[in-house]
Each structure stands twice: as structure tokens, then as C-alpha cells.
Design a protein that fits this description.
By secondary structure, the protein is mainly α. It has helices spanning 24-39, 42-50, 54-78, 80-149, 153-161, 167-188, 194-222, 231-239, 241-250, 252-281, 322-325, 332-337, 344-369, 375-401, 406-425, 432-441, 446-459. The protein starts with 23 loop residues before the first helix and ends with a helix. Mean pLDDT is 78; it is low at 1-11, 296-306 and 444-460.
Length: 460
């Protein structure tokens, strides 16, 4: 029976590549490498140099290794307890390190949570800092608002019970005025808190206005008493000028009432005083004065031998001396007791210096107490002094209509001009109009020119 080879009987060779260790080339290469490594060993080199039999040397080395191995085993057996103790210590250290690892892991987790907490606290701190700044920003305004809204019991008791002349009343009146103004401001803003204090503030305002009105009117009425030096109560009113300011800001009808009452009272006082003073001054005037018969050019002129001093200047010009010009005014009853007589220009100087002094003081008082300036001050001054000034101009016009004393006329003109300079120096414009009217009254007519020529001739 013949067998034929099938395709399964042909086995192709297996190619293992670098893993094929059956090849002769690989075995030879490995042997060469081992031989080369052994030849490079120091002991082998030494043995080859000394010519030692390698088989014997190999047995010797093997015996030495066995001896060393036995010695090592004995050493290990001898140190077995120490090795066991070391093993236990290593095991204990390992457990300790394991616990430390757990603790460190716990610490790490705690630190992570603390870090998140610190971040949260930092955010809260920033938020709190912002709120603090916002509160500080509104603190001053809110504090002022609360202070203005609160009406202290001290203010209530002082306004209701204390006299207006007390310093404490004046201080609390300032505070009340501030609260009234603040309440008005809040009402414009429609602030609800304003209604909490509005009622009590209004009641305190009414009480304060009533007490101030009564006090000022009593001072004004005291001017009317005979022989009263009205400058003293005026000075008292100036100490309490804030009273009128308070009335003007909070109760204009009462302020107008006080102003009108003062104007009416002082107008009558000045008019009565200067009317009486002027009439009494005329009683101490020289009886021997120039008349129309003493002028040149007049028909039927009598002899001037007995009247040769009428147009003599003499000491009459001394009235323009600054010391005399601003000297004390004449006291009529004292001059009458001494039977003294004065020329008209001396009486004129005394009369108008009294007007100048009182007018300047009155203008300053009106500007300070009633808080007026400019045209308002001039109008208020004229409402008080207008009647008196009209009387002055009327008396002056009456005197000039029948005056033939040229020296007196020209001296009076110079007196007015000097007084006008004084008012300008004192910065008092209130009397400028009256001075201008006086100068117009003294306008030089044809007859006045004749008197001037005569005066010029006599002086030369």
C-alpha cells in the first residue's frame, strides 16, 4: 500500500525571529559573552596569571561559599531574636506611620475645610466692611436728622417759663428757629417724620412769638414816658436783635406790627423833641438883629451909628471851627438862667448838630435792628424823620423869608456843607436829601446877592 503525502504533511518552518534560541548563532553569541565577562573578573585574571587549576579553584570557591553560607545561617539563627524584635519594631513603625498617614489625611481634609471657611469669612468680612462704610457715610446725616427731629424737654421748659431777657432763652430760641427751618425743609420733601414734631414746634413758635412781641412793645412804649432817654432802651433792643429776626422769619404780621409801632412812636418823639427844642432856642437869640432898614439902597435908611456892629463878623466865624462845630449842643434853659444870647448861626449849628447826631444814630439802629439796607433803610428812616425834617425846612423857610442878616445866612450855608461832609465821613446817606433841600432853601436871590456884596465889602 502506497502512501501519498498530503498537504497536511508539509509543515512550514516557524520563524520566531529574535526569540529563536535554537539557532547555533545565538548560542555561540551567548557563550562568547559569558566567557568574555568571566575573563574580565579580577579573581579569574589572578588565577590565570598564577597558573592555578581552574577545576580545583572552582571547587575551592564552592567550598568557601558553603562555609560562608553555613556561617551566615548560624549568624541568622543567633540573631533571630533581634531580627524578630526588629521585625516587630518595623511592624509597629509601619502601624504608626499608617496612623500618621490617616491623621495627615484628616488634617489635609480639615485644612481644605478651613480654607473654604477662611474664604467664606473673607467674603463676609468684605461684605461687613462695605456695610460699615455705608453706615458711616449716612451716620452724620442720620444723626443730624435725629437731632433736629428731637425736641428736648429743656427747650420746652425754657421757651414756656423763662423770661426773654435770659441768655438761656435766647440760646433756645436759636435752636427753635433751626428746628422750624428744618421742619419746613422736611415738609417740602414730604418726610413722614416731620409730622411727629410739627405740632409741638408750632406751639413753641406761637409761645415764643407772643413773649417776644410783648417784650419789644413794652420797650417801645417806654420811649413815650416823659424825660426818658430813648437811647437806653434802643441799646437794649440791639442786644436782642435776633428777636425781630425770628419774628420776620416766622410771623411777618407781628414783625410788621412792631415795626409800624416803632415808626409811629419815634416819629412823634423826634417831632415833639425838635419842635420844643427849636422854639426854646429862639428865646436865647440876639434881639438886636439886622432888618431891611439896615441894608444899603433902602429908602429912609436911619443912621447906622447906633447899629454899627450888626454887620461886623467879629467872633461869629468861630462857629465853623471844628471844635465848636462838633461841640455840645446848647441847653436853652441853662442859657436863659445865665441870660446868655447867641447869634442865629450858633442856634442853627446846635439845632442841626442835634439833628445830625440823632439822625446818624437812628439810621444805624434801623439798619442793625430791622435788618434793612439801601433804599429800604432810607425809606424807613424817612418814615420816622420825615415829619421832623419837614418842620426844619419850614422853620428855615420862615426864617429866611424875613432875614436880612447876610453873615448868618452864609455861615449857615457853610455849617450845612460841613455837616454834609461829616455824614459822608460816617457813611450815613440818610440826611443827604434833607441837606440838599436846605441848600435849595438857601438859594441866592437878587436880594441875597446884594447881601453877599455887602458881606464881601465888610470882610475886606
Amino acid at each position: 500500500m502506497c502512501w501519498q503525502k498530503s498537504d497536511f504533511d508539509v509543515v512550514p518552518p516557524l520563524n520566531l525571529g529574535d526569540l529563536d534560541i535554537t539557532t547555533d548563532e545565538f548560542i555561540l553569541d551567548e557563550v562568547d559573552l559569558h566567557i568574555q565577562a568571566n575573563l574580565e573578573d579580577d579573581l579569574v585574571k589572578e588565577a590565570l596569571k598564577t597558573g592555578v587549576d581552574l577545576r580545583q579553584y572552582s571547587k575551592q570557591v564552592e567550598t568557601e561559599l558553603q562555609r560562608i553560607e553555613q556561617a551566615s545561617i548560624k549568624d541568622y539563627i543567633k540573631e533571630s531574636q533581634n531580627i524578630a524584635s526588629l521585625h516587630n519594631q518595623i511592624t509597629a513603625c509601619d502601624s504608626i506611620l499608617e496612623r500618621m498617614e490617616g491623621m495627615l489625611s484628616s488634617f489635609q481634609s480639615d485644612l481644605s475645610s478651613i480654607s473654604s471657611e477662611i474664604q467664606t469669612l473673607q467674603q463676609q468680612s468684605v461684605s461687613m466692611n462695605m456695610r460699615l462704610k455705608n453706615r458711616q457715610a449716612v451716620r452724620s446725616q442720620l444723626s443730624q436728622l435725629v437731632d433736629e427731629l428731637v425736641v428736648p424737654s429743656t427747650m420746652i421748659s425754657v421757651i414756656l417759663d423763662s423770661p426773654v431777657t435770659e441768655q438761656e432763652f435766647l440760646e433756645q430760641l436759636h435752636e427753635l428757629n433751626n428746628k422750624i427751618n428744618f421742619a419746613k425743609e422736611l415738609s417740602f420733601r414730604e418726610t413722614l417724620a416731620c409730622s411727629d414734631i410739627q405740632d409741638i414746634v408750632d406751639r413753641l413758635k406761637i409761645k415764643a412769638v407772643s413773649k417776644i412781641r410783648e417784650f419789644i412793645l413794652q420797650k417801645i412804649y417806654s420811649f413815650r414816658k416823659p424825660m426818658t432817654n430813648y437811647q437806653i432802651p434802643q441799646n437794649t433792643l440791639l442786644k436782642y436783635r435776633f428777636f425781630y429776626q425770628f419774628l420776620l422769619a416766622n410771623e411777618r404780621t407781628v414783625a410788621k406790627e412792631i415795626r409800624d409801632e416803632y415808626v409811629d412812636t419815634m416819629s412823634k418823639i423826634y417831632f415833639s423833641y425838635f419842635k420844643s427844642y427849636s422854639s426854646r432856642l429862639l428865646k436865647v437869640q440876639y434881639e438886636d438883629v439886622a432888618d431891611k432898614d439896615d441894608l444899603m439902597g433902602e429908602e429912609d435908611t436911619p443912621s447906622l451909628k447906633s447899629r454899627n456892629t450888626i454887620f461886623t463878623l467879629g467872633q461869629r466865624g468861630e462857629v465853623l471851627n471844628p471844635t465848636e462845630l462838633e461841640g455840645p449842643i446848647l441847653i436853652p434853659h441853662a442859657a436863659q438862667r445865665g441870660e446868655s444870647r447867641y447869634p442865629y448861626e450858633t442856634l442853627f449849628r446846635s439845632q442841626h448838630y442835634a439833628l445830625l447826631d440823632n439822625g446818624c444814630r437812628e439810621f444805624l439802629f434801623l439798619s442793625d435792628f430791622f435788618m434793612v439796607a439801601g433804599n429800604s433803610a432810607l425809606d424807613l428812616f424817612n418814615s420816622i424823620m420825615g415829619k421832623t425834617l419837614s418842620m426844619f425846612l419850614k422853620n428855615l423857610s420862615t426864617y429866611l423869608s424875613d432875614c436880612y442878616d447876610s453873615i448868618a445866612v452864609f455861615l449857615c450855608i457853610h455849617i450845612i456843607l460841613r455837616f454834609r461832609a461829616i455824614t459822608a465821613k460816617r457813611n450815613i446817606p440818610a440826611l443827604d436829601k434833607s441837606v440838599s433841600l436846605s441848600l435849595q432853601t438857601y438859594r441866592i436871590t437878587n436880594t441875597d446877592l446884594e447881601r453877599g456884596q455887602l458881606l464881601f465889602f465888610l470882610v475886606m
